[in-house]
Design a protein that fits this description.
The chain is α+β, with helices and mostly antiparallel strands and 288 residues long. The protein folds into three domains: 75 residues; 69 residues, no CATH class; 105 residues, Transthyretin/hydroxyisourate hydrolase domain (Immunoglobulin-like, Sandwich), CATH 2.60.40. 41% of the residues lie in helices and 17% in strands. It is built from eleven helices and ten strands. A four-stranded mixed sheet has the order 3-2-9-10, with no helix packed on it. Strands 5-4-6-7 form a four-stranded antiparallel sheet. Helix 5 packs across helix 10. It is globular and about 60 Å long. The two termini are 35 Å apart.
Length: 288
């Protein structure tokens, strides 16, 4: 299918096709009403606008409920049977999912749903069981409001992947990268800062609320902190880097257990916020 095909479908058939990308009835109906759309990039941006600005908590939870629940060893074993193959050469020493990891992941999923009332939503494509467990353990300490916002972002990433599967002949190279990106370099080692949890936060009631988070890859990057088509409103935001856990993993003492970087967003242009760290100092700048 192409975007032209989708544009020309009868409305009910268009809704049926869009339902494979997002389980929210309201999202499906509003996006179908917006057809025809001139490009794949415009489709993604319109989908994001509807998802974040016109849908409500009821619609978000409806979409979450359409994802299969992963909470038992059998389903997890099947899902991560090819862990090493999926990881490829991105990281050295990648191990296939162990029984302990799968058991922890199954229990974590149950604990997560019990705490928040909805299942753990993450764009899991290409992630190993170990990576999934790390993300789950990082996020389960969040508040309900934070997890709702993070899960919304993960659903939008999933919707984009399903757009691509639905319209395999589409021009997806025109999609914009994440509005906010980051890169961590450990200057004491001359290497990327790998496996660092980063939270992107907005100011709320005199404090900070996480709206998305992730873990840096082998290059010290998170390429999809925000889904394509999602743009932050102008204002102040903060990235919070969990440097304590990173240096614990290196068996190294650090003077800074976390690094907060507050910055201002002015428009929809790309914002790159890199971090240069060592155990006793750090620096940042606006990159490109």
């Amino acid at each position: 299918m192409t975007l032209i095909n989708l544009n020309n479908l009868p409305r009910e058939e268009a809704i049926k096709q869009l339902a494979t990308c997002n389980g929210s009835t309201k999202w499906q109906q509003l996006l179908a009403q917006a057809l025809p759309i001139e490009s794949e990039a415009a489709l993604v941006e319109k989908a994001a606008e509807i998802w974040y600005e016109q849908c409500t908590e009821k619609d978000w939870l409806e979409a979450f409920n359409h994802h299969p629940k992963i909470g038992d060893i059998k389903s997890l074993t099947e899902k991560f049977a090819s862990t090493q193959h999926l990881a490829g050469n991105e990281q050295s020493g990648v191990q296939t999912a162990t029984k302990n990891v799968l058991e922890s992941l199954a229990q974590g999923n149950e604990d997560y749903e019990e705490k928040f009332g909805f299942i753990f939503i993450v764009c899991a494509t290409g992630k190993t069981a170990d990576e999934m467990l790390r993300l789950l353990q990082d996020r389960i300490v969040n508040t309900y409001e934070e997890e709702l916002a993070i899960a919304m972002g993960e659903q939008q990433k999933i919707s984009i992947l399903r757009f691509k599967k639905l319209m395999t002949e589409g021009n997806w190279g025109s999609l914009k990268a994440s509005h906010i990106t980051t890169h961590v370099l450990d200057t004491s080692l001359g290497k990327p800062g790998q496996n660092i949890t980063i939270r992107l936060q907005k100011p709320v009631d005199g404090g900070w609320q996480t709206i998305t988070q992730g873990v840096t890859n082998a290059d010290g990057r998170i390429g999809d902190l925000l889904a394509s088509g999602r743009f932050l409103k102008s204002g102040s935001y903060r990235m919070l880097f969990d440097t304590a856990s990173y240096y614990v993993s290196l068996d190294t003492k650090t003077f800074y257990p976390e690094v907060p970087i507050t910055f201002t967003v002015f428009d929809n242009t790309h914002y790159h916020v890199p971090l240069l760290i060592n155990p006793f100092g750090y620096s940042t700048y606006r990159g490109s």
